Amino acid sequence: MSDSKRVLLIEDEPNITEAIRFVLTREGWHVQTHAEGRDAVETVRERKPDLVILDVMLPNRSGLDILADLKADADLRTIPVMMLTARGSSPERETALRIGADCFMTKPFSNREMLDTVRSLMAGSP
Amino acid sequence: MVRDREHRLTGARIRARRAERRMTQAALAEAAGISASYLNLIEHDKRRIGGGVLGRVARALGTDPATLTEGLGPDLYAALESVAERIPSNPPPERDRIDGLATDYPGWAALIAALDTRVAALEHRITALGERMSHDPVLSEAVHDVLSTVTAIRSTAGILAEDGLDPQWQARFHRNLHEDSQRLADGAQRLAGYLNVGEAANSDAVSPQEEVEAWLSANDWSLDMSESCGLSEAGETALARHTARVTADADCLPDEALRAALKEVGLDPFRLADTLGAPVTRVIRRLAALPARAMPRPLGLVEIDGAGALLFRRQVTGFLIPRYGAACALWPVFEALLTPAHPIHRRFRQHGRDTRPLESWSAVDLTRPGGLAGPVVARAVMLVAPLEGVAGDGVPETVGASCALCPAPACPVRRESAVL
């Protein structure tokens, strides 16, 4: 994993954030975090990460709305987005994938599953 | 077909019974007065057995003929075949040996069939609960919180299970694990209690009114019924009742007039009522009956009776409406019930995860459906819309959805503690 890879983790659960940050940092990622829906799109625009990990249920704004904004923005739409959700219902998954999510992980997931998904996602990105 | 199967089972049962008694084929054949080769054909389902031969074989085996020909029956066979068909396993079940299983291990076979029945019942229950969760924002949020905590625990435990973790990190993750495990235990216990209360009510039921609301939502609140609605009979009746009310409102306040007034004064039911000379309650109901695509802002609606029961719900993002139990007593619509002559406009945010600012308009109809000698009946409506152009910080968090999941730390009207 290249040292230059940067991930923006948008997740409001602090202990999930801490665990994911630890695991990805150890893999060589530079991890930045954002804990709520408000200003999430602006944060992505400002930081231009290589990957966004985005929780669906966030305070103040749905992750699906944020995803829609990201994919509607010509400057941001190429950034891969991995959605996290505790509700693995197929309508929600279909909505996320239709809007343009690159992959969708259902909580609870293991660190190994998350790492494998991140690697697989980034293997296909520039 | 069934008779053939029973015939096969009889041969297998004779073989199993003989093996239990440690008899050779020759010894059994001799005792039954038949040749060993004929017995061999019977045991391997090449010959039918009945009448006197069956009686003699049964006697020689120390049992009665019925035990060899009945007992397990086609139901058990069908159940085992069904299990083998539906549930994959590795290695797969030997479907050509179901007879032998049922004969040699009747108790285990019956247990497998009983477990299959139990699994089917549980699957049905899970489907029902899944359906319930997808419609119940309160329950859905509770499950979300539990699953988030489980995710934190799983990730943290995964890190702690590794060798060579720095002691400082180890201590930190131990602390997180302790916090999350406590939170999970509390949340799971309360969630279980919440589910049990729901199950007592009727876990599978989606009420006719909910059917109507779901159908209207899927059709963008249009009452175009050119195609079959696919509702239950009770749902169709509830939809007809709703349609009659909407039609009556539309007769008094036609679309064209409402849309023209909307353009003139904007989305303000009080000003619209003044402009149109119509009751505020009717204006609110008419607005909430229009398709979302035709409205300048998303709209939600709740209708309640004088006892506070929720009669109709139109969901809008940012405003959770409970499916079960009582709503938050601080909703402005309940205040409106106390001042029926004075419609109420309020700005608020709802406690919880989505705290976007909202505004609402509430009004009450008082009627005497039984005439002047009858009781006065109240029916109140509250229209809810996201508040635009106003910073959320300027609007206080003043209401919840229901006590069960409201995180408000100190609430003067709390009836019960929060689930989480």
TrEMBL record, chain B:
Top-level taxon of the source organism: Bacteria
Matching Gene3D superfamilies: lambda repressor-like DNA-binding domains (1.10.260.40)
Record-annotated HTH cro/C1-type domain positions: 14-68
InterPro entries linked to this entry: Cro/C1-type_HTH, Lambda_DNA-bd_dom_sf, ScfR_C
SUPFAM superfamilies: lambda repressor-like DNA-binding domains (SSF47413)
Listed GO MF terms: DNA binding
Protein name: Helix-turn-helix domain-containing protein
Organism of provenance: Palleronia caenipelagi
